[in-house]
Amino acid sequence: MTTITVEASELTRIYGGREAVSNVSFTLSKGEVLGFLGPNGAGKSTTMKMLTGNLAPSKGRVKICGIDIIENPKEAKALIGYLPEQPPLYREFTVDEFLTIAARLHRVNNQHIKKAVQVAKERCGLTEMGKRLIENLSKGYQQRVGIAQAIIHNPMVVILDEPTVGLDPIQIRDIRALIKELGGEHSVILSTHILPEVEMVCDHVQIIHKGQLVFNGAIDVLKQQRHGNKLLIGLNNPPENDALLKIAGVTGIDTLPSGLISVRYAEGQLPAEAIVQAAVKSGWGLYQINPDQTSLEEVFVQLTFQEQGLQEQAA
Ligand code: ADP
To answer: What's the start-to-end Cα distance of the chain, in Å?
Structure first.
């Protein structure tokens, strides 16, 4: 049975008469990692703050494991671990001191605090860092401490706002691996403006644009959208475009600066076999043929552009 851990219904936040977040609804189940993706200013942090009970929605509601965060904030918040965009670190403390305070704040039972600190350090690769001052740690390790404080009470839901911003590539790789691992036992929501991050870490993705959800689904569905009806072919002796356009299913040809040819085709009429046969028969010197994947960036632009178009039509 799937356990619903987060239920957001029609979340809306108005700032100065303008909707920063409009009618955002979704559910998250145990064990899922949800990527909340959008350009800067899209409404990600505002949504995270509402999900964690740090900002009251203008409209809508949030339930954590069935508990309404406005009606029962204490109970609901006890089920959440949150790493805000600016990690709440006391830099003059050691890692052990800080995590002990975090455990107390999260109401971990006194006799379990030592163990909780030890487990959080282990999970975040901080076992050797307990006696170090936080201010002397690298940004990547400080971020690990931020994540450790978010999971110290073993919450059902972990919410991380832009957890890899400002880290170097190795730190980013390590933090992403840690987030993936957390997904096994918790529900994780992470916000990011980095598309490949979502692809690497998440199984569900939501794209937010100007406060509105423009995509909500499994990462596989987003990936499928990358496969436009296009093939990329390489020919040593390319024919005139007409010869390619005559092949059944082919609807258009674009020769790319690299010399490769992008062949568009009608839905459901993959012309790969016919192209290979024609190339062999006519001596075109075919050396490459593969699906021409639209970059995720293009998918993202298409999604946000469509939404803008719809809004303009509605206006
Ligand atoms: P993101 O996290 O995706 O970068 P935010 O949620 O921070 O986006 O911001 C969404 C929109 O709400 C932006 O236009 C931002 O300027 C506006 N906004 C955020 N916080 C406030 C605030 N406290 N007062 C007024 N406007 C705000």
So the answer is: 43
